C-alpha cells in the first residue's frame, strides 16, 4: 500500500513532492476573503487536496510541496508570501483543532463526573431497594432498570475518552505537518525539468 501511494508522487531524493498546478495565485485562496495574502484563507478544494495528500503519505516519509504558476504570476513577493500563507492557514487550523480537543476533554471530564455519580447512585439504590421494598418481579425489574441506567450514563464519557479524541488529534498532526513542510513556487516550465 505504501509503495502505491508513493508512486502517485514525484520523488526528489528521499522526499515525496506534492505538486499543485495553478493558472493564477487566486485559485488557491477563498475568493471572498479580504485579508492580506499572508493571512488569507485557502480555497476549500485546495485545503482538502493538500490535507488529503499529506494525510495519505506515511509520517516517516519526508515531504515538500511545489506550487507551479505561469511565469508572469511569479514575483519575489509571491515566492515568499505564498508559502507563508499556506503555512499560516494550516497553523490556524491546527490551533482550532487544539481548542476543539481541549473543549472535548473538558466536556469529557464533566460528563464522566456526572456519569460516575449516576452509576454510583444507581448501584447504591439497587442494593438498598430490596431491603426496604422486599422482592418480587417489579423490584427485580427496577433493579435491572437502575443497572442499565447506571451503565448507559457511562456511554458518553467512554465514547469521548476511547474514540472521539483521536480523529481530532490525527487532523491536528496533519495540519502541523503541512505547516512545517518546505513549500516552493516554481514556473510551469519546470514541470518538464523538475530539478
Q: Brief description of this entry?
A:
By secondary structure, the protein is α/β, with parallel strands linked by helices. The chain has helices spanning 2-6, 44-56, 76-133, 137-153, 155-180, and strands at residues 10-12, 15-21, 62-69, 182-187. Helix 2 packs across helix 5 (155-180), helix 3 (76-133) packs antiparallel against helix 4 and helix 3 packs antiparallel against helix 5.
Can you describe this structure?
The chain is of the alpha/beta class and about 200 residues long. The protein folds into two domains: about 110 residues, no CATH class; about 70 residues. The protein is about 60% helix and about 10% strand. The chain is built from five helices and four strands. A four-stranded mixed sheet has the order 1-2-3-4, with helices on one face. α2 links the parallel β2 and β3. The chain is elongated, with a radius of gyration of 27 Å. The protein starts with a helix and ends in an 8-residue tail after the last strand. The mean pLDDT is about 90.
Q: Specify the structural class.
A: alpha/beta
Total count of strands:
4
What is the distance, rounded to the nearest whole angstrom, between the alpha carbons of the first and last residues? 27 Å
Task: Identify the strand order in the major beta sheet.
Answer: 1-2-3-4
Number of domains: 2
Number of helices: 5
Q: How many strands, which pairing sense, and closed or not: the largest β-sheet?
A: 4 strands, mixed
Order of helices and strands: HEEHEHHHE
Runs in which pLDDT lies below 50 for 5 or more consecutive residues are none
Instruction: Let me know the average pLDDT.
Output: 88
Radius of gyration: 27 Å
Shape: elongated
What share of residues is helical? 55-70%
Portion in strands: 5-15%
Amino acid at each position: 500500500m505504501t509503495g502505491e501511494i508513493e508512486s502517485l508522487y514525484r520523488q526528489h531524493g528521499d522526499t515525496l513532492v506534492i505538486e499543485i498546478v495553478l493558472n493564477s495565485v487566486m485559485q488557491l485562496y477563498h475568493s471572498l476573503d479580504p485579508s492580506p495574502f499572508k493571512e488569507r484563507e485557502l480555497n476549500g478544494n485546495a485545503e482538502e487536496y493538500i490535507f488529503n495528500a499529506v494525510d495519505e503519505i506515511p509520517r516517516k516519509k519526508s515531504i515538500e510541496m511545489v506550487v507551479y504558476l505561469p511565469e508572469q504570476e511569479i514575483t519575489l513577493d509571491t515566492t515568499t508570501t505564498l508559502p507563508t500563507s499556506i503555512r499560516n492557514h494550516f497553523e490556524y487550523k491546527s490551533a482550532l483543532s487544539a481548542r476543539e480537543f481541549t473543549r472535548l476533554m473538558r466536556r469529557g471530564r464533566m460528563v464522566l463526573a456526572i456519569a460516575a455519580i449516576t452509576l454510583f447512585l444507581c448501584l447504591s439504590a439497587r442494593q438498598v431497594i430490596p431491603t426496604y421494598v422486599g422482592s418480587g418481579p417489579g423490584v427485580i425489574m427496577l433493579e435491572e432498570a437502575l443497572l442499565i441506567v447506571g451503565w448507559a450514563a457511562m456511554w458518553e464519557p467512554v465514547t469521548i475518552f476511547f474514540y472521539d479524541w483521536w480523529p481530532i488529534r490525527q487532523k491536528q498532526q496533519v495540519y502541523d505537518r503541512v505547516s512545517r513542510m518546505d513549500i516552493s513556487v516554481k514556473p510551469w516550465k519546470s514541470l518538464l525539468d523538475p530539478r
